Structure formats: C-alpha cells, structure tokens
Amino acid sequence: MTDLPPRVLFGAAYYHEYQPYERLKTDLDLMSEAKFTVIRVGESVWSTWEPENGRFELDWLRPVLDGAHERGISVVLGTPTYAVPPWLARQYPEIAAEDATGRRAAWGGRQEVDITHPAFRFHAERVIRAITARYAGHPAVIGFQVDNEPGPRLPHNHGVFQRFVDDLRQRYGDVETLNREWGLVYWSHRLSTWADLWKPEGNAQPQYELAWRAFQARQTTEFIAWQAGIVREYARPGQFVTTCLAYWSPGLEDDELTDGLDVTAGNPYYDMQDSLTMPEPPHAKLPGQWMDHGAWALHQSADRIYSSRQEPFLVTETNAQAIGGTSDNRPAFDGQWRQAAWALVARGARMIEYWHWHTLHSHRCAHPDEGRAGSPRPVT
C-alpha cells in the first residue's frame, strides 16, 4: 500500500471551473475554516483542458492548486478521460460504444466511448501526459485518480468482438476444445470454425455470457492499468495512483483492477433520513435503485471497498447534498453525516471526500444508460 498521511483525510470534490463567477478565495477560505485537508480536481473537464484538437489550456488549474497548498489542503488530481470533448466525438464518431443491437451511443452524457479504440487511446494518452507533466510536481498534489467509475458499459463494437474471439482462441486453442468445455452440443451450438461464433446480442448460453462479461472486465482492468502506467512516468515518489470505483458497474472486476493501483477508492452512496435508523423501517427496493438502503448496507459498501485489496481505502465520493432526481434529494438528519463518516472510517476509510463542494449552477445531469437495471444515475 502507498504511504498515506497518518490522519484521515477530509474534503470534497471541487470544481472551480463550474462556477459562473469568481469565488476561488472564498471557497478555499471556507474549506480551511471547515478543516478540509483534501480536494479532488480536474477529472471532469477534458474540453477545458483541450478545447480543440491539440490545443491545450492547462494554466487555469494552477490558482486552485496554489491556493489549496497555501492553506495546507492536499489535492487529488484526476485524468479527464471519462468525459470526451465534443470535438473528439465529432472528428471520430467511430469511437462511440455500440450496444448489443449495433446502435451507437448518443453523445451528450459521459462514458459513451469504446475505451479500446485506437483513436480514443491516442487522444486520451496525449491529454493525460499534458496534465500530469504540468502538475505532477506541484507540492499540493498527493495523488492521482485515473478516469472515473470505469466499466459502466459493455461495448459490442466490431473490434471488441473480434478481440473476444481472439481471446477465446488463445485460451482454448481450437473450436473442438471450446465445444467440449462449453458443452455446445446443447441446442446444436457446436462450432465448426471460429467464424461460427455468434454475436453476444443473440446469446442464450450462460457459459458464453460469463466469458463475455469476464472479457469485458479485463478490458476495463487493462485500460486503468494503462493509464496508471502513464501517470507513474511523471508521479513523484510517495504520490499514489487510484481510480474511483462504482461497484455496480457491469464491466468491473474490482479485485483484479485494483492490483494495478496503489490504493482502492470507492464511491459509496446511501439513502439517508429514516433509512439510517435502527431498526430501519420496511422498504421496498425500487427497480434500478442505485443508492444503498439501510445502516447495514452502508457498512457493507465500506466492507466491499476494503475487500478489493484487503487494505484500508479512500472514499472519493459520498453523499453531501442533493444528487440524482428530486425523489433522491433527502438531506441527512442532524448528525447522520457524522455518523456515516465514522462508520466508513471504522471499516477502513483513510479519506472521506464528499461529492461535491457546491451545487451546480447550470443544471443536474443524469446519464440514461447508467445504473442498475438501466435506470438513471447522477453524473459524478
């Protein structure tokens, strides 16, 4: 495990670039008054870092880092690869992730891309290197978050499927071995050549589904390890590299993915008010509900993050204010945030970082393709 400060870090994600008016000094002074020790910055605004293809604007973050450092507040710097800029979507429409029907993901949300596509990787690497080369040496930066909540999609793009076939060929050697191991005599699914393997959208075989999901998770693991490797070329000794995990993501195998990181970080969100009373009132879980419900579930979410590496962990996002739809906007009762924070610390959290410092002035966004059972979930 990487060296973390001896005290539990306390803070929030902070996006000065979202503010419609200047208030950086006011915000940082208020953070200092609230005894903040950490903020997370930079991971959501690729189009601010690189407004046009190859034209970088990097200096806007320096006043945030300098101001934080002056007040003794550490910074976790994020790479912005989970939200691609419009110019990249316009110039490379083929990087859009495709669903099981072959329909390309519509632009306008986040995480719409096939993360294995060479064009996306080229531009992602370029912006990662530009940001980390500029700011890895800043004394406020204690670590890096690469990407954000990886694995929310299972892209069915042509190149992804062909790599899946190649992966099976390497694992099984020939179709007769695959036929035998998968029991493809059932329902007349025996293959005579690798070209016979049907596409995932038509599949009803559980062994195929398991292999497809495992392959997709390995793509996510490789993507995060690839980013971590780039960042480590610039990181100073003692700076950690992590990513924040949303454990319900379908393309995620957390215990494998975190092997390539220095510390696990997770985003536990939970229902508050009566949901945290003991004993909790009767509750019918709605289809697609993504927030944990019940005091037991809050503790379980922390245990899940701990289990990824069997080590203390970071909380990069958790409840702070209104998130999601209006039906989710139930602020905590007096004392509940403090209770929840101590519950997470008791389970191994070495950082409690809320999402986020201020309410969005423009609008609340939701990604229609995220969440359990395809339900909306807040963009974080």
- The value of Rg in angstroms is 22 Å
Largest sheet: 9 strands, parallel
CATH topology: TIM Barrel
Number of domains: 1
Oligomer: single chain
Percentage of β-strand residues: 5-15%
Contiguous helical run count: 11
The string of secondary-structure elements, in order, is EHEHHEHHEHHHEEHEHEHEEE
Distance linking N and C termini: 26 Å
CATH architecture: Alpha-Beta Barrel
What is the molecular shape?
A: globular
Helix content: 25-40%
Poorly predicted ranges = 365-380
Q: Could you report the average pLDDT, rounded to the nearest whole number?
A: 90
Short summary of the structure?
By secondary structure, the protein is of the alpha/beta class. It has 11 helices and 11 strands.
Structure, described:
A nine-stranded parallel β-sheet has the order 5-4-3-2-1-9-8-7-6, with helices on one face. A two-stranded antiparallel ribbon has the order 10-11. It has eleven helices and eleven strands. The radius of gyration is 22 Å and the shape is globular. Mean pLDDT is 90; it is low at 365-380. By secondary structure, it is α/β, with parallel strands linked by helices. 33% of the residues lie in helices and 10% in strands.
Which key features would you list for this structure?
two-stranded antiparallel sheet, globular, 33% helix, disordered C terminus, 11 strands, alpha/beta, 380 residues, TIM Barrel
List the helices and strands and how they pair.
Elements: E1 9-13, H1 24-33, E2 38-41, H2 46-49, H3 62-70, E3 74-78, H4 86-91, H5 118-135, E4 141-145, H6 158-172, H7 175-182, H8 206-232, E5 240-242, E6 244-245, H9 254-257, E7 265-266, H10 295-307, E8 313-315, H11 336-346, E9 349-354, E10 366-367, E11 377-378
Parallel strand pairs: 1-2, 1-9, 2-3, 3-4, 4-5, 6-7, 7-8, 8-9
Antiparallel strand pairs: 10-11
